[in-house]
Automatic annotation (TrEMBL):
UniProt-listed SUPFAM superfamilies: TPR-like
Designated name of the protein: Tetratricopeptide repeat protein
Species for this entry: Actinomadura violacea
TM helices/strands, residue ranges: none
Source domain of life: Bacteria
């Protein structure tokens, strides 16, 4: 799956390749030329030209209404390429620019409300994020296609989870994996399974959480995204810790460290420190 995208990326002009990498950092599922211009710090006219180049290589897709999205696993690959080729300061500046862009605009339509809500979520303004994403879901259910509605439910569930509304979050998340599967949307199915696992972990149900994380892992492995696979093993380690199973926690962290070491994520050191701090035990208590 990865090779065709990698080949297309390597054939891009430098400015288009940089835009693609930075688009992997922006919080929304889709975006317009204004957001692309903000994340790359280029004029809107230049961003439109670069998006045309990316679309011609199959690296961005037309989402309708002058909006674009990164197809399939490209967003994960773009983040990985950014970690490899762009410095931390540049990545942080790009993220700040696009968050400021979303929060400075007057959100009117569903897509703009979703983007604003996700920017608020990233800035940890939970209550405001819930309010924006609830309105975004209402508009999506009125005007959007099925995938747009499912993504809006997932985004709202994430905000509810952070605000402590676990029951509402789980209620929204529960049907999403099967509904994304019906659309043959494996990347978003994996994301929904991961968020569902996080919700059950916060609800004190680590065995159920382990099941959801395990299902997500199967999908992520097929996408050949080492960082996301490593993240999923960290989630499995979290669930093992909550079960009191130090051996399983250590084994999951070992896998995460090996995966993080294969890509320039900067996450291997934190996982290794956690691994070193595990007290050995014979298994679950």
């Amino acid at each position: 799956m990865r090779a065709p995208f990698e080949d297309s990326y390597r054939s891009l002009p430098p400015d288009a390749a940089r835009l693609l990498r930075l688009l992997g950092l922006q919080p929304g599922d889709d975006f317009d030329a204004g957001a692309a211009a903000a994340v790359a710090d280029v004029p809107a006219s230049a961003a439109r030209d670069l998006l045309g180049t990316l679309a011609g290589r199959g690296l961005v897709a037309d989402a309708g209404g002058g909006r674009y999205r990164l197809p399939g696993p490209v967003r994960d690959y773009a983040r990985e390429w950014a970690a490899r080729e762009d410095g931390e300061e540049e990545r942080d500046a790009a993220l700040r620019r696009v968050l400021d862009h979303y929060l400075a605009g007057a959100a009117a339509g569903e897509a703009e409300l979703e983007a604003e809500g996700l920017a608020l979520l990233h800035r940890e303004r939970w209550a405001e994020a819930v309010e924006a994403l609830e309105e975004g879901l209402r508009l999506a259910e009125r005007d959007g296609d099925r995938r747009t509605v499912l993504l809006a439910r997932h985004n709202l569930a994430r905000a509810l989870l952070e605000s402590g509304a676990l029951d509402r979050a789980i209620g929204l998340l529960g049907p999403l994996p099967d509904e994304f599967a019906a659309l043959s949307d494996d990347p978003d199915r994996a994301r929904a399974l991961t968020t569902l696992g996080e919700a059950y972990l916060r609800a004190g149900r680590p065995v159920a959480a382990t099941n959801f994380f395990g299902q997500a892992l199967e999908i992520v492995r097929a996408q050949e995204s080492p960082e996301r696979e490593g993240d999923t093993f960290v989630h499995l380690a979290d669930a093992a810790r909550r079960r009191g199973d130090a051996a399983a926690e250590g084994a999951a962290l070992d896998r995460a460290i090996a995966l993080y070491d294969s890509v320039p994520t900067g996450k291997a050191e934190a996982a290794a420190r956690r691994r070193d701090g595990i007290t050995p035990s014979s298994g679950p208590s």
